[in-house]
Amino acid sequence: QVQLVESGGGPVEAVGSLRVSCAASGTSYSRKRMGWFRQSPGKERVGVAAIYSGEGRTVYADSVKGRFTIAQDNAKTTLFLQMNSLKPEDTGTYYCAATGVIGGGPLTKESYNYWGQGTQVTVSS
What is the pLDDT of residues 10-38, one digit of tens each? Predict the structure, then answer.
């Protein structure tokens, strides 16, 4: 089945930049839509960005519009999230997610059935 492995997280200063990556394996039919989610201790996992693999269409949470960019490589085996102008509020564990069924909201965690282990991003003031 689909396996997702995140990397690239770490500590950064506010206004800095960071790129996290997700290596994906398994049939592309199970990865028609992919997304990045963020979760902090005691808080709900929330959608940050999503991409429809076949079309390249992207969706962003209002809080990251203009600062974050989601993208895939040509082979669709790696998902990226370029994070610029980082804020302390961006701190959390970033999870890569995938689904073969593209119904439901693209930034809703219940819409996805495959998840990576997460990579920690800490933005300091």
Answer: 999 999 999 999 999 988 888 999 999 99
